[in-house]
Amino acid sequence: MSRKDLWVKVATPLTLTQVADLVEGRLDGDGSIHIQGVAPLDDASPVEMAFLAMKRYGRLVSTSNAGAYLVSSEFEYLIPAGLPKVVVDRPYPALRELLSYFSNEGDLSPGVHETAVIANRVHLGSGVRIEPFVVIEEGVSIGDRTRIGSHSVVGSESTVGTDSILHAHVVIYPRSVIGSNVVLHSGARVGSDGFGYTEINEVHEKMPHVGRAVIENDVEIGANTTVDRGSLGDTRVGVGAKIDNLVQVAHNVQIGAHSLLAALVGIAGSTRIGKGVWMGGRASATNHLEIGDAAQVAFGSTVMRDIEAGETVSGSPARPHREELRRQANIRRLEKLQKRIEILEAGSGDRD
Amino acid sequence: MSRKDLWVKVATPLTLTQVADLVEGRLDGDGSIHIQGVAPLDDASPVEMAFLAMKRYGRLVSTSNAGAYLVSSEFEYLIPAGLPKVVVDRPYPALRELLSYFSNEGDLSPGVHETAVIANRVHLGSGVRIEPFVVIEEGVSIGDRTRIGSHSVVGSESTVGTDSILHAHVVIYPRSVIGSNVVLHSGARVGSDGFGYTEINEVHEKMPHVGRAVIENDVEIGANTTVDRGSLGDTRVGVGAKIDNLVQVAHNVQIGAHSLLAALVGIAGSTRIGKGVWMGGRASATNHLEIGDAAQVAFGSTVMRDIEAGETVSGSPARPHREELRRQANIRRLEKLQKRIEILEAGSGDRD
Amino acid sequence: MSRKDLWVKVATPLTLTQVADLVEGRLDGDGSIHIQGVAPLDDASPVEMAFLAMKRYGRLVSTSNAGAYLVSSEFEYLIPAGLPKVVVDRPYPALRELLSYFSNEGDLSPGVHETAVIANRVHLGSGVRIEPFVVIEEGVSIGDRTRIGSHSVVGSESTVGTDSILHAHVVIYPRSVIGSNVVLHSGARVGSDGFGYTEINEVHEKMPHVGRAVIENDVEIGANTTVDRGSLGDTRVGVGAKIDNLVQVAHNVQIGAHSLLAALVGIAGSTRIGKGVWMGGRASATNHLEIGDAAQVAFGSTVMRDIEAGETVSGSPARPHREELRRQANIRRLEKLQKRIEILEAGSGDRD
Question: In terms of DSSP bridges, do strands C203-206 and C197-200 run parallel, antiparallel, or are they unpaired?
Answer without folding.
Answer: antiparallel
